[in-house]
Automatic annotation (TrEMBL):
It holds the Pfam family 7tm_4. SUPFAM superfamilies: Family A G protein-coupled receptor-like. The gene is LOC103601890. The chain crosses the membrane at residues 29-51, 63-82, 147-171, 203-229, 241-262, 274-293. It comes from Galeopterus variegatus (Malayan flying lemur). This is Olfactory receptor. Its main location: membrane. It is found in: Cell membrane; Membrane. Residues 44-291 form the G-protein coupled receptors family 1 profile domain. It comes from the Eukaryota.
C-alpha cells in the first residue's frame, strides 16, 4: 500500500471541489450572496487599514495590531472566496493540486497567525491597563514588530507541518473533496492512507499553538478585570472596559465560529460548510464593524475622513 500510495499521489494533478450543495436554480443567488459579503469584507477591512495608516492619532500598538488583523482577515477570505465563487458558476469545479496545496497552506497560515495576533492584542491591553507606566517600554515599536513576526513564524511553521502530512497521503480512492475549499479534514476522507499521523499532528498543533493563545487571552483579561474593578470611579471603569470590549467581541466571534466549524459532526458535511462560511466571510466582515462601532478613536477618525470628503465635494 505504501508503494502504491506513492504512485497514486504522483498521478493526482487536480481535485474537484463539490462546494455547497444547493439546487441549480439557486447557484446565482448563492454567487450573489458571496459577492455582496466579500465586497463588504474588502470595503470594511481596506477602509480600516486606510484609516489607521493615514490618521496619526492611531499610531499606537493597539492599532498597529488592528491594522494587521484587517490584513489577515482580508487575506484568508481572498485565498478562498474568489475560487469558491468561480466554482459556483462553473461546471468543472476543479482546483489544481498545486492550487490546493497553496490554498490550504495560506488558509492555515493566516488562521494561526490571527490567533497569535489576538493574543498579542490581549497582552497589549493588559500592559496598558495593569502597567501603564511601563507601556511605552513594554510595547515599543520594536516589540510590536517582534510579536507580529513571531505570530507569522508560528503560522508558517504550523502550515508547513499541516500540508506536509496532508499531501504526503495517497489519493487512490477519489479526488472529489466534499467542501468549497481545500481543508485538511475533507482531504483526509478521500485518502487511502493511514491518517493516524495526520490526526496526531493536528491535535499537537492545537495543543501547542491554539491552547497557549487562549491561555494568554484569558489570563490577560483576568488581570484586566481585577485591575479595573479596583478603580473607584464608574467613569474610569467604563473607560478602561471600553478599550477592551471591541477586542473581546472579535475574540469571541473568532473562537465561536472556529469552534462551530471544527465541532460540527463530520457526519453532517453541509452544516460544516455553513459553519465555514461564517468563519471565512462573516467574521472578517464583522470585525471592522465591531471596532468602528465600539471604538471612539476609530469613530472619530472615520468622521474626520468623511468630513474631509464632504468639504472637498
Amino acid at each position: 500500500m505504501g508503494d502504491k500510495g506513492g504512485d497514486n499521489h504522483s498521478e493526482v494533478t487536480d481535485f474537484i471541489l463539490v462546494g455547497i450543495r444547493v439546487r441549480p436554480e439557486l447557484h446565482s443567488l448563492l454567487f450573489l450572496l458571496f459577492l455582496i459579503i466579500y465586497g463588504m469584507v474588502l470595503f470594511g477591512n481596506l477602509s480600516m487599514i486606510g484609516i489607521i495608516v493615514t490618521d496619526p492619532r492611531l499610531n499606537t500598538p493597539m492599532y498597529f495590531f488592528l491594522g494587521n488583523l484587517s490584513i489577515i482577515d482580508l487575506s484568508y477570505s481572498t485565498v478562498i472566496v474568489p475560487k469558491a465563487m468561480a466554482n459556483i458558476l462553473s461546471q468543472k469545479k476543479t482546483i489544481s493540486f498545486a492550487g490546493c496545496v497553496a490554498q490550504l497552506f495560506l488558509y492555515a497560515l493566516f488562521m494561526v497567525t490571527e490567533a497569535f495576533v489576538l493574543a498579542a492584542m490581549a497582552y497589549d491591553r493588559f500592559i496598558a491597563i495593569c502597567n501603564p507606566l511601563l507601556y511605552t517600554v513594554r510595547m515599543s515599536r520594536s516589540v510590536c514588530i517582534q510579536l507580529l513576526a513571531g505570530s507569522y513564524l508560528c503560522g508558517w511553521v504550523s502550515s508547513i507541518l499541516q500540508i506536509s502530512v496532508t499531501f504526503s497521503m495517497s489519493f487512490c480512492a477519489s479526488r472529489v473533496i466534499d467542501h468549497f475549499y481545500c481543508d485538511s479534514n475533507p482531504i483526509e476522507k478521500i485518502s487511502c492512507s493511514n491518517i493516524f499521523i495526520n490526526k496526531m499532528v493536528s491535535l499537537s498543533l492545537a495543543i501547542v499553538i491554539i491552547l497557549p493563545t487562549i491561555v494568554v487571552i484569558v489570563v490577560s483579561y483576568m488581570y484586566i478585570v481585577s485591575t479595573v474593578l479596583k478603580i473607584r470611579s464608574s467613569e474610569g471603569r467604563k473607560k478602561a472596559f471600553s478599550t477592551c470590549s471591541s477586542h473581546l467581541g472579535v475574540v469571541s466571534l473568532l473562537y465561536g465560529t472556529v469552534s462551530f466549524v471544527y465541532l460540527t459532526p463530520p457526519s453532517n458535511p453541509e452544516l460544516r460548510k455553513v459553519a465555514s462560511v461564517c468563519y471565512i466571510l462573516f467574521t472578517p466582515m464583522l470585525n471592522p464593524l465591531i471596532y468602528s462601532l465600539r471604538n471612539k478613536d476609530v469613530k472619530d477618525a472615520m468622521k474626520k475622513v468623511l468630513w474631509k470628503k464632504k468639504v472637498l465635494l
